[in-house]
Amino acid sequence: MATKQQLSAIKGAKVLMVGAGGIGCELLKTLALSGFQDIHIIDMDTIEVSNLNRQFLFRQSHVGQSKAKVARDAVLKFSPQISITSYHANVKDPDFNVDFFKQFNVVLNGLDNLDARRHVNRLCLAAAVPLVESGTTGFLGQVTVHMKGKTECYECQPKPAPKTYPVCTITSTPSKFVHCIVWAKDLLFTKMFGDKNQENDLNVRSSDASSSSEHAEDVFERKTDEDIEQYGKRIYDHVFGYNIEVALTNEETWKNRNRPRPIYIRDVPSTELIQENGNVDKIFVADDPLSVSAMASLGLKNPQDVWSLMENSRIFLEALKLFFVKREKEIGRLTFDKDDQLAVEFVTAAANIRAVSFGIPFHSLFEAKGIAGNIVHAVATTNAIISGLIVIEAIKVLQNDASNYRMTYCLEHPSKKMLLMPVEPFEPNKSCYVCSETPLLLEVNTYRSKLRDFVEKIVKAKLGMNFPLIMHGSALLYEVGDDLEEDMAANYAANLDKVLSELPSPVTGGTILTVEDLQQELSCNINIKHREEFDEEKEPDGMILSGWMQAPPKEKENNKISSDNGASTSNASPAVPLETEEDNEIEIVLTGAENVAAGNKRKLSDISNAATSDLCSVADKTNSKNKPEELDDDDDLVMLDDGNSNTSKKKRLR
Ligand SMILES: Nc1ncnc2c1ncn2[C@@H]1O[C@H](COP(=O)(O)OP(=O)(O)OP(=O)(O)O)[C@@H](O)[C@H]1O
Ligand SMILES: [Zn+2]
After folding, report:
1. Where are the domains of the chain?
2. What's the rounded Cα separation, in Å, for the pair 27 and 32?
């Protein structure tokens, strides 16, 4: 039961919710039933069938409609007396500026990507509005409170880098099914149906050098009037046969590894059946490209079946054909989407055929989709628990009850009979460039790198700025905005193509650049250090940004392909599982730079009264009895958090 004071705080509050998905639906309902009277809700998405199992405010008839609006209407049916304002929009839209944020007493996030979370964090800091941040992944979840100057901001701790794989593992020596999936999704699918100008390592082989790159260059182009069946078979033979033959010529690679087997279409029994069974026009809803399915066309129904080589080959050829026959307009623009059935079918089949070559077991479409889409199946109960905790923290914030704020972690296994673990929030990280004024350091070859590289690779990808403005002293080098004068816009465009040292106000070693995002009202200084050489493999960006945000890379190799496609429900901050020991204690992993270096861990009891620290992660140290089954890497549940693959984070749960 709420006290009188709580009720009055609730009634007088104006609240902004961002996200009306799994957490958002629960949250809106709980806010309404707790007595909140004035709720605003932003969500940019429309309702999909796959949301209906847990986003309980939505029904089949709502598919295709705005989540924010339908959620509003559904809650108003049982709480008609309250005011709910919905915005079907991206929270990054300029309309949602600092003044917009200032009208709220508290902001509650129910988002699913790092990019949007960072953006909201910055606006809350700029507007000095408290933020309650949240995230769930399967059984895990967390709620954290962020208040300018009093607690850590959402970005005070670096987020774990996304899981990546060395290019050569993906292109030449896969040993796990996930390697085949990454190859099929990020290389083959992109090469066939994505942006042709994008760099693609599909034809990089460990042997390479003299291998016929000419052959590789144009093989993916469909020749004028080339029969689609022939084209599909030619691609099949090239990627599963010829490319493997070429890789085999590098004896060095296979000295200590099993040699892969090239597979040609002629080796696959009965693929010709495709001609008889495949019926492109059979099942599809006119004008709905997403209803196109190779499985449906071939009469394969169960996504949990593991297909044979023959079936995978038929799906591969049929899916390729369907893209060209039914979705030709999209070719050249497609990116892999886990909700695109035909794309999932193509990627599953291609990954399985590659897996056979390398002696890796087949996987079903259902499993392949989970791996390709980094899907951790959502648990509705976790969303409900987390939403309840958000409201509890929001009420404390409204009452200014700072001594009782808690970051709460929802665990998968009880620890000391507790599933929820509350921890006191920590003070702001003094070296966080978002909420403090710490300068960053950029090592870059100022005679070779262009301003464009700096803007794309650092300002947008690493610093997460949307509307950057770059200054050297009082000289403005770059700015974006709709209201720029034509000649200024032309100047900035010209600057983008200049190397740093040749800019009107030259940027060289020792320069201090100021980078600002006007919308986020975020400004930071970057000290420039000239460096002549960069290792192409290990430092592919040709520039290195350091400061607080450098997350320690998980693997040694740096030339990596990320398996990250950017869409998943995931936590606001990391909960990295620890090695299990034979006790049943919860440990806090400190991921501040020194702590990572020292590998420090602290027990909850050690820190229960801690006022300051770098708490980043919490993990349940389970005893052997309830220790989850050890999974092979292929089966790791992988989660990531992103809108922008460059900045996304991912966690793996065991
Ligand atoms: N930049 C953004 N602006 C507004 N809303 C956003 C933004 N980024 C994400 N969201 C919303 O946050 C919600 C997150 O909900 P949830 O994690 O349940 O994801 P989902 O897309 O509904 O489900 P799933 O990803 O599991 O299919 C989504 O409804 C999404 O539209
Ligand atoms: Zn911070």
Report:
1. 4-160+377-423, 177-359, 440-547, 586-653
2. 8
